[in-house]
Design goal:
single chain; 108 residues; mainly alpha
């Protein structure tokens, strides 16, 4: 007669410890992957922000240069207008002198 006995797998404390260790290792690996993804995302965002900041700085510099050029042109225009005004005043004086000279010449 052959008696068969069923053997049941019993979990031993060592096997449970291995399972817990494997799960802890897996959890740590998952956390590391998540940290790496986060770091990669942060790097991409930082790069994108840097590009935007660089573009903004370039635009700001262009605006500053335009404003500086406009100020110089306004200053030059003011100088030119001042010279023109002086020339008009001088021409008016000369015209008055010419009128006086003409009147004096006619009266003689």
């Amino acid at each position: 007669m052959l008696i068969s006995t069923f053997t049941f797998a019993q979990t031993t404390p060592a096997t449970q410890d291995q399972t817990v260790d494997r799960q802890a290792t897996k959890d740590k690996a998952d956390e590391d992957k998540q940290r790496m993804r986060s770091a990669t995302d942060l790097k991409k965002e930082t790069k994108s922000d840097a590009k935007v900041a660089k573009a903004n700085a370039k635009e700001y510099k262009r605006i500053e240069n335009d404003a500086s050029d406009a100020a110089q042109e306004a200053k030059q225009a003011a100088r030119t207008e001042n010279r023109a005004q002086k020339s008009r005043v001088k021409a008016d004086k000369q015209a008055k002198k010419a009128v006086r000279a003409s009147e004096k010449s006619n009266s003689n």
